[in-house]
Design a protein that fits this description.
Blueprint lengths: L1 H13 L2 H10 L6 H11 L9 H15 L1 H15 L2
Helix pairs in contact: 2-3, 4-5
């Protein structure tokens, strides 16, 4: 299972705004281009483990600061989809 987590974390840490928008659409999550750009810019190079609850919570909190609380909630839903077993 560790390899699966590594692949997902790598994708999160290198995601582009276009990819983020594609996943948001796939999972019916409201996200616009400006929000996707801010989030992708923030995530790039952070090396965050979204399978670690405390790291994920800190990340969502930081996203809320830059993109707003509603966007952070939507991104958290997306993270939950990625980490479902």
């Amino acid at each position: 299972m560790k390899i699966f987590e590594n692949i997902i974390n790598h994708k999160i840490n290198t995601i582009t705004a276009d990819e983020l928008l594609k996943y948001a659409k796939q999972f019916n999550i409201a996200l616009n281009r400006l929000q996707a750009n801010k989030i992708a810019e923030y995530l790039r190079g952070k090396n965050v483990n979204i399978f670690d609850d405390s790291q994920k919570a800190a990340l969502v909190k930081e996203i809320a600061k830059s993109a707003g609380p509603e966007t952070a909630r939507e991104v958290n839903k997306l993270f939950m989809q990625f980490t479902k077993s």
